[in-house]
Amino acid sequence: MALGLLGSAPGPGEQVDTTLSAQSHRMRAPSVPEVAPAAGPEVRVAASGSARGTVRDWRRAAERARAAAAAPTAGTPVPGSPVPTSPAPGKPTSGPAPTGTAPTGTAPTPDAPPVVTPPVRDPNAATADIRAYGAKCDGVANDRDALQAAITDMSAKHGVVTVSGNCRILTTDATPGITLATAVTIRGTTPGATLGLDADKITSFRQMFGVTGDDVTLQDLTLARRTGVYGVMINLYGSRGFTMDGVVIDGRRDVFSGQTFHGIAIWGALGNAKMLGSTIRNTDYGLFQDSGVRTTTDGFTVDRSTFTGNVLDDLEFNAPNGRMVDITVTGSTFSANRADRIGAGFGVGLANVQNARIQGNTFDGYAYEPVHIEDRSAFVTVADNIFRNSFTAGLDWASHVWVADASHDITVTGNTFDTSGNGNRIDCVWVGPGGNHPTVTNVTITGNTFRLRPTARTVGNYGATGVTESGNTVVTLA
């Protein structure tokens, strides 16, 4: 697997420091000095344009400055991890050309969302309880070695490791997070079964799991940070068939406010990944891919899941130098995002993503736009969602769906845009180049319901072409 701009690929057990790498490519500006680790997002600065036209560049500068100021002084990668380097400024030229499966170049039809079924639980699969390997799961004893032993045993049999109680997983430089290198299932068997990530020192980067193998499944578990260590709960270094089913990731940023901690980071090629009936809460990024990653994600489904209390983006499907196709986010709830600076705080972010569907979700409680589409993203459907109490910050690019930078063939249909919570001026759908970039083309906005206060509009078109509106309903609010 390739890390592209980040250096050599990590081996099993190695950890990647994501403290600054999490910053999406749209957030970076050259005027802020680098601090270690200097990670992958590239520079994009608009040369000219109105306030709305340069919003993306303001956001990058502000977010980058905030990240640099908040970086821990001990933020160097752990031994054995690649040392990332910054790419040259400018728009990436190596990214793939937009592609789409629609033969006529039109966005997908907003059909009913696909039915997603959880993985089959094989009653005949080999099964081992973590306690049989010496775990106590009393919240006090260190159960890391017992968990690793059970996983090693069951991986050889493509089996199931069962977990009950409150298991403390203490990570150190010598005994880092758990590597999942082959097909295995880790399943909770009691309500609230928890694997708690602990660390001998909070100044070193830590992860719970590093996934390098195919067909890894996590089921009915809570993965919780026990201390203020910085890092990530799950690093996906390359996998097909990775599944989270009924899993809670709790970064506890509401308790440990000082250190950056993410839910899931993508560093390598993925295929047919699923997040089903799961929750990511109180993290920085819930899920993200660094801008330097050049591999392909071919299929990532998020269904019936919950995202709440996260500090940056909930789901950041970010591939300016890689490729992401067939991304589906359905039937999920996004709420109470805690971003307080421009540059982040999105429910779903798409950058150079092809063939995506965001459907049947609820977005409630965002200072900034819940859906952010940019950087050559194409054949995207935003359908049957409810937006309320969103982009409440008093900024002139306020919107619920924001589309920019050469994105094309976007359909926005069947949504309810409720601006009753917006005292600020807002365009429910914002379309335009977003600075000194190619403009947006072929956007269809149809069959939506707009509940508009006097300061709200249905669509703000700031230079996009091929924008059509039809069959929308406007309800005027006092």
Name of the CATH superfamily: Single-stranded right-handed beta-helix, Pectin lyase-like
- Assembly category: single chain
Q: How many alpha or pi helices?
A: 2
Uncertain ranges: 1-108
Radius of gyration: 22 Å
Number of strands: 38
- Briefly, what CATH class? Mainly Beta
Structural class of the helix and strand makeup?
mainly beta
| Biggest sheet architecture | 14 strands, parallel
- End-to-end Cα distance: 55 Å
Mean pLDDT: 80
- Overall geometry: elongated
Taken together, the total number of domains comes to 1
Strand residue percentage = 35-45%
Helical residue percent band: under 10%
The CATH topology is: Pectate Lyase C-like
> Which CATH-level-2 architecture?
3 Solenoid
Detailed description of the structure:
There is one protein chain. The chain is mainly beta and 478 residues long. 6% of the residues lie in helices and 38% in strands. Strands 1, 3, 6, 9, 12, 13, 16, 19, 22, 25, 28, 31, 34 and 37 form a 14-stranded parallel sheet that branches. Pfam families: Beta_helix.
Keywords:
478 residues; mainly beta; Pectate Lyase C-like; 14-stranded parallel sheet; 13-stranded parallel sheet; 38% strand; disordered N terminus
Short description:
It comes from Pseudonocardia ailaonensis. With 478 residues, the protein is mainly beta. The protein has helices at residues 55-70, 144-155; strands at 127-129, 138-142, 160-163, 166-171, 178-180, 184-188, 194-199, 206-211, 216-219, 222-225, 231-236, 239-240, 243-245, 248-250, 261-266, 270-276, 279-281, 287-289, 296-303, 306-308, 315-318, 323-330, 333-335, 348-351, 353-359, 362-366, 371-374, 378-383, 386-390, 399-403, 408-413, 416-418, 426-431, 441-446, 449-452, 456-461, 465-470, 473-476.
